[in-house]
Amino acid sequence: MPEGQGVVITGLGLVLPSGAGLAAADAVFQGRSAVSLLPAIKGIPGATGAAVREFRPPKGTESADRAVQFAIAAAEEAWAGARSGRFAPSPERVATVVSLSKGPLLALAGQAEQQGRGMPDWNQAGADAAASAIAARLDLAGPVLAPVTACASGGHALIWGASLVSRGRADAAIVGAAEASLHPLILGSYRRMGVLADAGDDAARSVRPFSATRRGFALGEGAGILVLESEASAARRGAAPLARIKGWATGAQACSLAAMEPTGEALSHIITVALARAGLAAKAVDYIHAHGTATPDNDAAEARAICRALGPAAERVSVSSTKGAHGHLLGAATAVELVLTVLAMSRGEAPPTANLTDPDPAIGLDCTPLVARRRPMRCALKIASGFGGQMAAIVLTAPGEA
Question: Is there a catalytic annotation at residue 183?
Fold first, then answer.
């Protein structure tokens, strides 16, 4: 660990376009895409996205922002899973680190439209709206934090929470992120940036990470929440950890607003530092859940970073991006994909890269096309990359690995 005592993951919660709850991940492991043409959105013709179609807000949250509802639902699932056993940490010793990178966007937009004066209620307008709501809902009194680092927000939330637990500042932490940004403001902005995939004849096949014909992503919505606690705490109560957080590193390379630094040097350095802090060699990595946005430049830069950091060991690593199945969840992307990475380790199965019928030979990695692959998963790496150059690398190991 980079700092002090070991940190483990003992609870997971998930909301995906395919449904709420961890069972919704089955669609991802089966390579089924939730991307479709969206109902008409004002000013944005022909938009595609991955919306959560069937979702029942947790009781008492019916008037809350949609992203906050997602976050609460995932947090309750994760907290219930972690507490399946004797686990009653003092409320003052549980941190809540959950991000909304766009804030409660839909609630604010709705209030502005209803009032007609653009004067929404700012009391719940911040990026900490979900974190505050979760802490109140679960009666927690520890630190409430909400890092906002674009598409890396969920990864940085985990790192902040793990750091608090590692240093003994908290006994447990609820970490993650949520997103609900299928709104003309966001869709129009990304369309102008040229990063959204054209639906073409089949919207479900439009997002193709690492494909020779990749052309961008589709926005998705949902949430990913994890419960962290110290290894000592889990051992005392006889809990079976789902994974260990062995190391991490963060950094930034503001090459441009939307593009990664093309050589991959900056991201490669962050991966190398994360592995070094974990005390692991490149050859220890079995699986990498890539950021994999399906944009032409960024997929290539990420592949260069992986090859540069792992060297010859990159040839035997299974890599995948699941954005073809659930869309790009923006600030929640890394949190959701961390949950999927832990599930992959538990299943011993690398999830497929959906729609990868024509792998780009220039990528030079095994990107797990179309079908999940059974394999041992002793060590996994999750890469996060955000607009504006925000980056992170997180190293996970199986519970029994030294």
Answer: no
Longest CA–CA span in the chain (Å) reads: 60
Q: Based on the residue annotation, tell me whether 367 is a catalytic residue of this protein.
A: no
DSSP one-letter code for 151 = B
Whole-model pTM?
0.94
**C-alpha 115: how far from its chain's center?**
34
The catalytically annotated residue of 183, 291, 307, 379 is 291
**Whether 151 is catalytic:** yes
Dist. CA 319–CA 52, nearest whole Å:
26
Mean pLDDT of successive 10-residue segments in the chain (402 residues)?
79 97 98 90 78 93 92 97 79 95 76 53 73 96 95 97 96 96 88 89 95 96 97 89 97 75 91 98 98 95 97 97 97 98 98 98 97 97 91 94 62
Amino acid at 2: P
CATH 3.30.70.20 corresponds to the domain 7-236: no
Annotated catalytic residue, options 183, 269, 289, 328 = 328
| CATH code for residues 243-397 | 3.40.47.10
